[in-house]
Amino acid sequence: MKRISTNQSNFDTQYYMRLREWQLNQLNNKMSSQKRIQNLRDDPLAAAKSTRYKSEITRMKRYSKNVENMKGNLSIEEGYLRDGLNVLQRVRELAVQGANGVLDKSQMAYLGQEVNELLKEFVAIANSKKADGEMLFSGFKNSTTPFRINTGNVPGAKGEVITSVDYIGDIGKNAGEISEAAYTSANIPGNYAFWAENQQIYSNIDARNYRVQVNSEIRIDGVTININEGDNVYAIISKINDSSAPVKARMDPIKNSIALQTTFPHQMWLEDGGNGTVLQDLGVVSSVSKNPPLNNDKTSRVFGGSIFDMMINLRDSLFKGNAEAVGSSGLAGIDKAINSLTSTIAEVGAKDARLEVTLKRLNTIIPDFVKMDSNETDLDLSKAVTDLKMLEYTHQAALSTASRVLRPTLLDFLR
Questions:
Q1: Cis peptide leading into 293, omega within 30 of 0?
Q2: Domain extent listing, the chain
Q3: SS3 for 306?
Q4: Model confidence over 184-205: pLDDT tens digits?
Q5: Tens digit of each residue's pLDDT (9 = 90 or more) over 363-384
Q6: Which of 8, 64, 354, 410 has the most CB within a 10 Å radius?
Q7: CATH code for the domain defined by 53-196+308-365
């Protein structure tokens, strides 16, 4: 015979009422958060999928922010570059006027003075800043003014004028990730953006008998090239030409020395790596100054100038009243400068177009992933309301039943 006490009914009733209270609390929390998964154990598979979706959404939002920031920087860059192009167009008009042969020296000097003022404006454009104060065209040295001017006296000019402009930034390109393992840069170093001609460097040292003494490396435009002990100048030339550096090397048949030339208009960035002295030994870079791009060996011959050089050359010819020089080298130099700057603007535009396509793709994909995550974790509100009402009804019914069943005690039977 099994004995049933009144406490047994009490315990059972309390257990099931607390269970329903817990269920009510869980359902209430889900309705408050609008999420059906409060803990991983609620639906482990859906929780795992949701975690992956949320991670992907976070990454894509970061990509989207990177793209928007880079588009803003490129827009600012393009604006300044177009301003520079407008300056060059005006300089070209002055060059055409000065080359027609009908102006006297004083009138040509007036043109030279205007070109000099436009040169100052162009330097100011090249030294432009972003809204946050960082330099646009100085590479990674975004707190350093990229172009330094040197002044002096020029025949025909009144007082000191700009005689040369040196680039003192670096070749760093701030690359940002715009999608999985896809990067693009949002800045152009000044020695690329404002160069007019392919640069050429000719050494004056006979390199026919040269041999590398120790394993070394050289860096050309940021590309590292390994040089082995025993390599001769022809092996070095071959390694340079086989590298990804935008520079080609050859032997100068007159001096029997090495000659370097860029494949598109920009200033070369040359340096010996580690403890090697290959470029120094070949007479390309100086052993005194090791900071490119102002480290060319003093005995080497350097050709191919910047846009500033083209403007300075034209201005000096105008100051001298040399119409022939204005119409030949002066006008040709400005045309090269315009072509180079136009190419740079086109490059910026191409990057902006790519970023625009990427941004549209991200703006399409992000809502899709948000929807997929929502399908896994969001609460079916109509079902939740129905379940809540059902639990409330059964809970009230249980309380009502318990109030009747649990009322009698042993004392009621001992009256």
A1: yes
A2: 53-196+308-365, 200-303
A3: strand
A4: 998 999 999 999 999 999 999 9
A5: 999 999 888 877 777 666 666 6
A6: 64
A7: 1.20.1330.10
